[in-house]
Design goal:
Layout lengths: L3 E12 L2 E12 L3 E5 L6 H9 L9 E4 L1 E2 L2 E2 L1 E5 L11 H6 L11 H17 L15 H13 L7 E6 L8 H15 L3 E5 L3 H7 L2 E6 L2 E7 L5 H9 L17 E10 L5 E6 L3 E5 L9 H6 L4 E8 L2 E2 L5 H7 L1 E4 L3 H5 L6 H6 L15 H15 L15 H13 L5 E5 L7 H16 L3 E5 L3 H7 L2 E6 L2 E7 L5 H9 L9 H12 L1
Parallel strand pairs: 3-9, 3-10, 7-8, 8-9, 14-19, 14-20, 17-18, 18-19
Antiparallel strand pairs: 1-2, 1-4, 5-6, 10-11, 12-13, 12-15, 15-16, 20-21
Length: about 500
């Protein structure tokens, strides 16, 4: 049997009033990919922070690394934000941790740096220009750069790579490209801890699954010993209801009408959403699906020929005018565009609308703010309920709930959601579905743009399918299934799109 590179015995971590980890034991061996799963608050983040040295474990806990003839094993961490400098190239990002010396300016040294970067990237399945700025690379390519940088210079195989939600912002082929890189890391002898909420990825990639719940180790199961439903039950403790109740809503008149939506990936699109209706937008990456919400909100590059909210034309194409008209927008990248991560949950939650909390001379009624925030934290199910904690210290699910809550508090007429459950666990996902259903039941129109076909099939009244920047199909509730949505989107990629713009206007009129 292979000697473990990383051994954790009886690991516990106690915070005031909270035992985040309780007697957890696990191992990671050479060449092994171990998936670490659990709901928000299960202890995953605390375990990673203990391994990274951010938190000190309780006494009697043991964390040890193998010490072989190749050298002592070492831990390397890649977090969701990757820690790359977008304005620098791959070469420069790889060089940040190294002393280049004065000779680095010589042509031969620059050539050597480039060749070194190309070799590192190729070792993990990458094939792209290492002189290009990081912020021009695809998401999967940026993750490969982060992997290459983490393992650069470690020639011995005794490495353990910890990947925290590496596919949260990846789709389709991008995720598969990352899987190639992760498998190569393992094939070269390293151990891998892979944290993901995407259970299909776990089934495909992991040699073993370790599940935490409420700080305790619930399961440690090898490949072949589980399926998707088994993982859901291990993580959540019971099968999670995965669809909102679609029968309790009454659809009203259109609250959103838009035509002539155009952008870098959208040729022409028209759509309408009725009060109480949940409408999905589906399509592969590059279909235009990923830009619809941002353009409607005035936060993306593009234009809208005509936009109505609640029967009133929206004048101006800015987020300010959108909010004033009754639109709310939850973007896919909550860390960069959805919240102020260094602020507390309380500050984020009340930021869009402070007026009801202000008193004479603009003074903020802090007691009333605290009461209102507590109501919303409880309503959206933030756990643990710590509104003063900086948002970047919270789990992905809690972050997303706070971003949703700050807009639901505005009682919007239309809720625009882009990848609403990206990077959250199955328990938090069910909670977010409930919040979406509740918003619709209160009369809001909801537009959900998502790469998750299963999600759209579960929660939507109808789904618009995009390909090559235009609407190619529309499926009603009775027709919806994950397979049909995937076929509708993929089957039309690269196909002739003549007449689809006219089809779009016809279909919108049918629902208006």
């Amino acid at each position: 049997m292979t000697t473990p590179l990383l051994t954790i015995n009886h690991l516990s971590k106690t915070f005031p009033g909270l035992k985040a980890l309780d007697d957890v034991s696990l191992t990671v061996s050479r060449g092994e990919i171990v998936a670490l799963l659990g709901q928000n608050g299960s202890g995953k983040s605390t375990l990673v922070k203990v391994l990274a040295g951010v938190h000190q474990p309780d006494p009697l806990s043991e964390v040890s690394l193998a010490d072989g003839h190749d050298g002592q094993a070492s831990l390397h961490f890649i977090h969701q934000d990757l820690g790359l400098v977008g304005s620098l190239s791959t070469i420069e990002n790889l060089s940040l941790d190294r002393e280049l010396g004065s000779g680095a300016l010589r042509p031969n040294a620059r050539r050597a740096e480039r060749e070194h970067a190309e070799a590192l990237v190729a070792a993990y399945g990458g094939n792209f220009d290492v002189t290009a700025r990081i912020d021009t690379l695809a998401a999967a390519e940026r993750t490969i750069v982060a992997i290459a940088r983490a393992l650069d210079g470690w020639e011995h195989p005794n490495n353990v790579l910890v990947l925290d939600e590496p596919t949260a912002s990846l789709h389709g082929d991008e995720a598969e490209q990352l899987f190639v890189a992760v498998r190569r890391v393992a094939q070269r002898g390293a151990g891998v801890i892979f944290i993901s909420h995407r259970l299909g990825e776990v089934i495909e990639l992991a040699d073993r699954v370790v599940v935490l719940r409420d700080g305790r180790l619930i399961a440690d199961v090898p490949r072949g010993g589980y399926d998707h439903d088994d993982l859901v039950e291990m993580i959540a403790g019971a099968m999670v209801p995965d669809a909102v109740d679609l029968g309790r809503r009454r659809l009203g008149d259109p609250v959103l009408r838009a035509r002539g939506i155009r952008g870098a990936t959208i040729a022409d699109l028209a759509l309408a959403v009725r009060a109480g209706e949940i409408v999905g937008v589906s399509g592969v990456l590059g279909s235009g699906r990923e830009d619809v919400s941002a353009i409607l909100f005035g936060a993306g590059q593009g234009s809208v020929e005509h936009l109505e909210v609640g029967g009133e034309a929206v004048i101006g194409r800015t987020p300010r005018s959108a909010v004033a008209a009754g639109l709310a927008f939850v973007p896919a990248n909550r860390r960069e565009h959805g919240a102020v991560m260094k602020m507390s949950a309380r500050e984020n939650l009340t930021l869009p609308r402070l007026a009801p909390l202000q008193r004479m001379f603009g003074r903020l009624d802090q007691a009333e703010e605290k009461r209102e925030v507590q109501r919303w934290v409880e309503r959206v199910g933030v756990r643990p309920a710590e509104p003063e904690r900086a948002l970047d210290l919270s789990s992905g699910g809690n972050q997303q709930k706070v971003v949703l809550a700050k807009w639901l508090r505005n009682e919007p007429k239309v809720l625009l959601l882009d990848e609403p459950t990206q990077g959250v666990d199955v328990g938090a996902k069910a909670g977010i579905y409930d919040l979406i259903g509740d918003a619709a039941a209160r009369g809001a129109g909801v537009l959900v743009c998502s790469s998750d076909a299963e999600e759209l099939a579960l929660i939507c009244d109808r789904v618009l399918v995009m390909s090559d920047g235009v609407l190619v199909s529309e499926l009603e509730r009775r027709e919806l299934s994950e397979a049909r949505l995937i076929r509708a989107g993929i089957g039309r990629v690269g196909a002739s799109t003549s007449g689809t713009a006219a089809q779009s206007d016809t279909e919108v009129s049918n629902h208006a």
